[in-house]
UniProtKB/TrEMBL annotation:
PROSITE patterns associated with the record: HTH_CROC1 (PS50943)
One Pfam family of this chain: MLTR_LBD
Recorded coiled-coil stretches: none
Record InterPro entries: Cro/C1-type_HTH (IPR001387), Lambda_DNA-bd_dom_sf (IPR010982), MLTR_LBD (IPR041413)
CDD domains on file: HTH_XRE
Species, as recorded: Yinghuangia soli
Name by which UniProt lists this protein: Helix-turn-helix transcriptional regulator
Ranges for domain HTH cro/C1-type: 10-64
Length: 258
């Protein structure tokens, strides 16, 4: 099987972003002719040019390495496990964020919704989950939507499914991924009869009602990512922090009387 050239890969990304050669040229401050020559293989771009075009196309770091390799250059971005010695500072920062959010739940997941870390407030919710779903890697979509996981606890599983569908579809639009696509096909493709799509404005603040310990806990969440990371692992993880949406829920987590 022939390996795609850097020009072909850049053209694929440009088409995916629905940009013309002129659009990309203007954004990257180069001539449209130069973009055309690169895409057709009539000129070999420098590493700096590859990265400039990739940045304007919002290409993920993992795929920028692939572009550099296709152009004959060494990868620029490392991918080190979060548990490695080199990532100690980043790991400590993530840990501080998770701990500081207690007594409310928070967790960290990667680009495929696999949970990387969580705080102590999240652990009680795993008690009723089938141990098979807790074998690494623990996947948030499976955990939320599988009947052996959180699904029985959710007051409206349809909202959770719609949220995951919207977010996963956006991720696949940004960067195709076979494993993530398979997960989408398994859990998110078919909408049950009568299930309405999640409104766009609810993506800003998606409420969640969880039936747990004989109560209805009302929560909402925020997402945090690392700014301008130079490591693939950091670029692909997200911290999701859950907050109480009413006083009763806050009292449950803090142990304070109403």
């Amino acid at each position: 099987m022939r390996t795609a050239t850097v020009g072909e890969l850049l053209r694929q990304w440009r088409h995916q972003r629905r940009l013309s050669q002129l659009d990309l040229a203007i954004a990257a401050d180069v001539s449209a002719r130069h973009v055309s020559l690169i895409e057709t293989g009539k000129t070999n771009p420098s590493a700096a040019m590859v990265l400039r075009l990739a940045a304007r196309l919002d290409v993920p770091l993992r795929e920028r390495n692939r572009l550099l390799l296709a152009a004959g250059f060494a990868p620029r971005y490392a991918e080190r496990p979060l548990g490695s010695t080199e990532m100690a500072a980043a790991r400590a920062a993530v840990g501080r964020v998770l701990e500081a959010h207690e007594p409310y739940p928070a967790l960290v997941f990667d680009r495929r919704w696999n949970i990387v870390a969580s705080n102590r407030a999240f652990e009680p919710f795993l008690a009723a989950v089938d141990p098979e779903l807790l074998r690494p890697p623990v996947n948030m979509i499976r955990l939320a939507l599988d009947p052996r996981g959180f699904a029985p606890m959710l007051a409206d599983p349809a909202d959770a499914r719609a949220m995951f569908r919207n977010r996963t579809a956006r991720r696949l639009a940004i960067a195709p991924d076979p494993e993530l696509a398979a997960l989408y096909d398994e859990f998110l493709t078919l909408e049950p009869a009568g299930e309405a799509p999640l409104p766009v404005d609810s993506e800003v603040l998606t409420p969640m009602v969880v039936r747990f310990a004989g109560r209805e806990l009302r929560l909402f969440s925020t997402l945090t990512t690392f700014g301008t990371p130079l490591d693939i692992t950091l670029a692909e993880i997200t911290i999701e922090a859950y907050y109480p949406a009413d006083q009763e829920t806050a009292a449950y987590f803090t142990g304070e009387p109403l």
